[in-house]
Design brief:
The protein is mostly helical. The protein has a single domain, classed as ABC transporter involved in vitamin B12 uptake, BtuC (Orthogonal Bundle). The chain has 14 helices and no strands. Helix 2 crosses helix 3 and helix 3 packs parallel to helix 8.
Length: 350
């Protein structure tokens, strides 16, 4: 009898080589991500309305002599870069947690009402209470994000919440809160003028003191997200299988909601609502690192800041001396990458 030959797949790749190829790509992606993050940080410090050579950036950071370039790098661009990196990592992690929790690769951190709650709180502070300081907006945004996330979780069933209930509750709360925001803005025209700078998401005119205020919340949310990586992976397999593996599903859901609220609430409070980063980065990363949250979360925390910082640099140089807010640019770039992924059919599944 002649040996039976297994036909090769249409693309010519042998099936046995695919796991090895994916493993090699995954191993190379982390060093590449570190390099891209370093390059994005360097661009953010050097590129803007005024271009500063990298050697002068290095001098401004580590051997300042009081020149104008030192002031630009240390007082303006360094805080902006640090905030962008922190916000990007928070949004990427929050998106990974949210998509895994709901078993929906199109879920966004804003699904918990974080963005809507923060926006409603800030517009109330501006239009009703007359608060215009960044610090005042920060605390109101944090409180609004936390209350909205708590409300969505309660409406979704509390301890008995399911992915479908959370999605429906988040949609309803988002619609109600954004309706309130629109109504209050039309009622108070001065509120509309103040809100338009905050609602699009920007890294401009943000001080390091604001980041230091929010940093403990972001750190707590990140640590909680990484601690939940293993049980979230079990939950993604289905509730029955997760319970069979000994996972306390209700507890994981509650803690996941807390993690997303801390991460995305803090990010939104710092920069305003920035969409698409928390949706697109986990979605794209899943295509080459797989759905396991233990591998997905480090990728998201590494690549999301790259997207946000590059978007910020592009926004600075497109229409000098003015600039386009980072939320607008990141949505545009994310949309292009997302369309490319869909057309190539490389979108990862949960």
């Amino acid at each position: 009898m002649s040996a039976t030959t297994v036909p090769a797949p249409p693309d010519g790749t042998r099936p046995a080589n695919r796991p090895r190829t994916r493993s090699a790509a995954r191993s190379a992606s982390l060093p590449i991500g570190l390099f891209l993050l370093a390059a994005a940080v360097a661009l953010s410090l050097a590129v803007g309305t005024e271009r500063i050579p990298l050697d002068q950036v290095w001098t401004a950071l580590f051997a300042p002599s009081g020149t104008e370039h030192d002031a630009i790098v240390r007082d303006l661009r360094l805080p902006r870069t640090l905030i962008g990196a922190a916000v990007g990592a928070a949004l990427g992690l929050g998106g990974a947690v949210m998509q895994t929790l709901t078993r929906n690769p199109l879920a966004d951190p804003g699904l918990l009402g974080v963005n809507a709650g923060a926006s409603a709180a800030v517009v109330t502070a501006i239009g009703v209470l007359g608060i215009t300081s960044f610090t005042g907006h920060l605390w109101f945004a944090l409180a609004g994000a936390a209350l909205a996330a708590t409300g969505v979780h309660a409406l979704g069933g509390g301890r008995h919440a399911t992915p479908v209930r959370l999605t429906l509750a988040g949609t309803a709360v988002n619609a109600a809160l954004f309706g309130y925001v629109s109504g209050l803005q039309l009622w108070h025209l001065s509120t509309l003028d103040e809100m338009r700078h905050w609602s699009v998401g920007t890294l401009a005119k943000r001080d390091v003191s604001l980041l230091l205020t929010v940093a403990p919340l972001l750190a707590a949310g990140a640590l909680l997200a990484f601690a939940l990586a293993r049980p979230l992976g079990a939950v993604a397999l289905g509730e029955d299988q997760a319970r069979a593996l000994g996972t306390r599903v209700r507890r994981v859901r509650v803690l996941s909601v807390v993690s997303v609220a801390l991460l995305c609430g803090g990010a939104t409070a710092l920069c305003g609502p920035i969409g698409f980063v928390g949706l697109m980065v986990p979605h794209a990363a899943r295509a080459f690192c797989g759905p396991d949250p233990r591998r997905l979360m480090p990728f998201c925390a590494l690549y999301a800041p790259v997207l946000l910082l590059v978007s910020d640099v592009i926004g600075r140089v497109l229409v000098p001396p003015s600039e386009i807010e980072v939320g607008t640019v990141s949505a545009f770039l994310g949309g292009l990458v997302f369309i490319h992924l869909v057309r190539q059919r490389k979108v990862g599944r949960l």
